[in-house]
Design a protein that fits this description.
Blueprint (H helix, E strand, L loop, with lengths): L4 H33 L8 H27 L16 E4 L2 E5 L4 E5 L2 E6 L4 H6 L7 E4 L2 E4 L2 E2 L1
Parallel strand pairs: 2-4
Antiparallel strand pairs: 1-2, 1-7, 3-4, 5-6
């Protein structure tokens, strides 16, 4: 299997779009429930307050997913990186990594790719390294085998 950066990028984008759609749908459903329930029955009406708290949590998830989509749109998947940087896809040992947003592990064609944010500590250790170079993280040495 040949690793394809565009395919990985699309999977990340679809992941965040799905999360945004699900959060928006849940947020709208809960708002509808609150509207159907009507105004607070008394000042200690915990049911309505609980619904509105849930709605606000889904609104936060929705906004976070939209923010992630905006970050992803800054990546040019057709570009080739010469060093580890935002938007690069690279292999270290048997592990593939894509520097984008914090998604974690995704699997494409039975290959695991770890999608990480530039804000995580491991990125600080590998930032700017080129193929053939090494970085040290948690006292262990890792090599950058190839960068796409």
């Amino acid at each position: 299997m040949n690793i394809n950066k565009q395919l990985i990028y699309n999977a990340c984008l679809e992941n965040r779009k799905s999360i945004a759609e699900n959060a928006k749908s849940a947020m709208d459903d809960i708002q509808q429930q609150a509207n159907e329930y009507g105004p607070p029955k008394d000042r200690y009406d915990s049911f309505r307050a609980q619904l509105l708290r849930k709605r606000d949590l889904f609104a936060e998830q929705y906004q976070n997913a939209l923010n992630d989509i905006d970050v992803l749109k800054k990546i040019k998947p057709e570009s080739v990186s010469l060093k580890v940087e935002f938007g690069s896809l690279f292999r270290t040992g048997k592990q593939w990594m894509f520097i984008a947003i914090g998604i974690g592990k995704i699997t494409i064609d039975k290959i695991d790719i770890f999608v990480i944010s530039p804000a995580v500590p491991v990125f600080k250790a590998m930032d700017g390294k080129k193929a053939g170079e090494y970085y040290i993280f948690n006292g262990k040495q890792f090599g950058i085998d190839e960068i796409l």
